[in-house]
Amino acid sequence: MDSRVTVVYADREPMPGIINPGSHQLFRNPRISVETRTLNALHPEEIRVQMCYAGICGTDVHLVDRNPDTGYIRCSAPLNIPIEGRVIGHEGVGKVIETGASIRHVRTGDYVTFESIIICHCCDMCRKGKFNQCRHAQLLGLETDGIFGSVVDVPGLAAHNVTNIIQEDNDIMSLACVEPAGVAYVACQNAVVSAGDIVVVFGAGPIGLFSAILCTTVFGASTVYVVDPVAFRRRVAEKWSGHVYDTEEFFSDLPNDIDVVIESSGDLENINKIFRNLNANGRVVLLARTGNHLALSAVDYMITNRISITGSRGHLGGAYNDIFKLYRNMRFPLNAAITGVVNGGLELVNLLKSREAILYENCKVLVKFE
């Protein structure tokens, strides 16, 4: 069977003088194209899926966006681009058209959404139930081929059956956003957001927006401030928070006694600027990957006030099932972030080549596959 897929190519050229280079120091001169590829025989533990909708993530944008001074990609997430290119994409919903011999939990005709972290189930972290930190994890669309294609093969264990949630096309579109919603959900858990907390969310992209919605509607925060320099994204966030600010405006009159900071913008200087306004026992969660350094100046304040800083990766450990229940009971509007839809791989490629259109004129854009 043939499939039309979106593929990224890049030159593997480690940046001179860098020990253990990140992806943004390893791959340069990215190219993107739409190709027809013939699928291999289906592995017993895989499913073959006809894609309906897939979401464009900031990581996908950073994969094809180069630093103009160096030519290296901006993506610092774990990544492997082989000579034959990498099929990208890791958020979406599709319909199962074939199952491998070992698959039992989904059947042909079922609708499925996907986890984007393919885990080993065998390492010490998996054995402890810390799946997001699997020692041998492979990231869908980054370290293994992804789901920007008309038909794709995906590990069966990464698929969640959502057939009984879907009643109309809006449900399919909404469920294409479960992966970033799951990342936001785990971030709120890692931040231990609880009733009465004052929360600041930096970045009103999809994950930041979902974090703000969850803090208010699910985790019980009393006040949620959303901060973003992009006017379009602030307007989207205003539907869900009465405290939405431009970055400069926010820092001109900082609130005190902040309990939680969720940093999803990638501007790590925000942490230094806000740190002394954090309450005792405050929590800072870092989500955005940029490859930049965090240089914290208020370490004594951190020690005295027992402030914690933690990274948060992933969506595993039960987040999806909770989100399905919340969505089914109209507690979590997954479609809140959707601001645009493009049709097929060619429109996807054109949009990815226009970084500004995604970052400044949209929140979450979906790709519709016919």
CATH superfamily of the largest domain: Medium-chain alcohol dehydrogenases, catalytic domain
Largest sheet entry: 7 strands, mixed
User: What would CATH call the architecture of the largest domain?
Assistant: Alpha-Beta Complex
- Unreliable stretches: none
Number of helices: 12
The number of E-state strands comes to 18
Q: How many discrete structural domains? A: 2
List the keywords:
single chain, 370 residues, alpha/beta, Rossmann fold, six-stranded parallel beta sheet, 28% strand, globular
Short description:
This protein has 370 residues and is α/β, with parallel strands linked by helices. The protein contains twelve helices and 18 strands.
Write the layout of secondary structure elements.
Blueprint: E1 2-12, E2 27-38, E3 46-55, H1 58-64, E4 86-87, E5 91-99, E6 111-114, E7 117-118, H2 124-127, E8 138-139, E9 151-155, E10 159-161, H3 169-175, H4 178-190, E11 198-202, H5 206-217, E12 223-227, H6 231-237, E13 244-245, H7 247-251, E14 258-263, H8 269-274, E15 278-286, H9 299-304, E16 308-311, H10 319-328, E17 338-343, H11 344-352, H12 355-361, E18 364-368
Parallel strand pairs: 11-12, 11-14, 12-13, 14-15, 15-16, 17-18
Antiparallel strand pairs: 1-2, 1-4, 3-5, 3-9, 3-18, 5-6, 6-10, 7-8
Helix pairs in contact: 4-5, 4-10
